[in-house]
Amino acid sequence: MDDASLIASELATNVISHAKGTGDYFELGLRRRNGVLILEVADSYQWRMPELRKPADDETSGRGLIIVDALAEQWGVRPRNPGKTVWAHLSVGADHR
């Protein structure tokens, strides 16, 4: 599951790079349900929700969610108290190794 590893890495890197705030923690969760791998990264930073954007050509960062968007079947963000959870879904059927 190279895609799952890359998505988990990108989401965790985003937390380390951008999430600063109450608690200063993050959690990575993985679970499989009905042929779907659900990856979730939760953090305690509640003032800024991640958004998919197109970085300028000369920017050295800002492409993590573009990668997640390209690899995941779907992804999103939901608030929690405190902070937020960013999630991504990947199919993990017999033909997805």
TrEMBL record:
Pfam families: HATPase_c_2 (PF13581)
Keywords in alphabetical order: ATP-binding, Kinase, Nucleotide-binding, Serine/threonine-protein kinase, Transferase
Domain (Histidine kinase/HSP90-like ATPase): residue spans on this chain: 2-88
InterPro entries noted in UniProt: Anti-sigma-factor_SerPK, HATPase_C_sf, HATPase_dom
Recorded GO MF terms: ATP binding
PANTHER family linked: ANTI-SIGMA-F FACTOR RSBW (PTHR35526:SF3), ANTI-SIGMA-F FACTOR RSBW-RELATED (PTHR35526)
Protein name listed in UniProt: ATP-binding protein
